[in-house]
C-alpha cells in the first residue's frame, strides 16, 4: 500500500475516488489491529510496528487529500480548460455516429495543455511548482483516457461479425475486472485472477502476426478496438494485483523499466504521428530484453528462486505489448499520417532512435 501511495504522490496522478479505497482499507486495518490487540493474538512489539506502518499510510493519504482540497491560483485557467474539455468529451461519448472530426480538436487541446508540463509538472511564474498538481494532472490523464474510449467505442460499431464473439468476450472480461476493482481490490491474489489471465492469453494466441484473422485468413475490421480492450483488461489485472500483491526487490528493476516503457508508449499514443514503424523499435527492443530474462515463463532471482510479483510484471508486460500493437494498428489504419518512405527511413542513421535504445538499457 505504501509503495502505491508513494508512486501516486510522485506522479501526481490521482483524484478523490482513487484515495477512497485507501481510506477504507486503512480503517479496516485499524479495526483488525484493535481486535487482535484485545484478543492478545500478537506480541505488543509487532502490534506497535504494524500501527506505525498504518499511521504512515494514513499520513500519506491525508497529505494527498490536502493537495486536492485547494486549487492553486496559477492552475485555475488550466483546470477550467480541462473541465470544459472533459464535459465535451463526455457529451461526445454519448452521441451516436462518427466523432472523428469533433474528437481531433479536443485531442489537440489536450496535447497543448500536456506540453506545458515540465517533468510531469505544471509550473507557475519563475518556475515554481504550484500545489494541487494532482487535480490538473489526473484530470488531464482522465481526458486522454476518455478520448481513447470514445475512439474505441466508435470503432466497436464497425467490428466485423467474425470478430464479434472475441469483442463480446473481451467486453465481458473488462466489465468483470472493473467490478473486481470496486469490490475486491485489496483481497485478490494472482491465483484469483488466473482464469482472467488465461482467457486473455488464449485470445492473444488467436492473433497471427499481431492481427486477428477470420476463417479465410483475411484481416477483418475492428482490430483496434480488440487491442484496446486487451490492453484495458491487462491494465485492470495490473491494478488489482498491485493493490494486494507486493513486487519483490529482485523484480523492482524490471517493474521500473516496464513503467518507463509504458509511460513512453502512452505519450506516443497521446501525441500520435507522423511516425514510422521503426520509431517503435526501441520499445520493442526493451520489451524483448525483459522477455529474454524469463526462464520457463518466470522471472528468476539470482539464487534461482521465483520472486513475488510475477503476475504484476506479466500484466504490465502484456499491457506494453498491446500498446505497441495498438500503435501499429493505428498506423495501418492511417490514423497517424506519415509522408516518409519506409525504405529510406530504414537506411538512415537515426540518432534519436539510438538515444532511445540507450534509455531502456
UniProtKB/TrEMBL annotation:
One of its GO terms (cellular component) is cytoplasm. It comes from the Eukaryota. Residues 332-354 have a biased composition (Acidic residues). Residues 331-361 are annotated as: Disordered. It holds the Pfam family DUF2408. InterPro entries: UPF0662. This is Uncharacterized protein. It comes from Marasmius oreades (fairy-ring Marasmius).
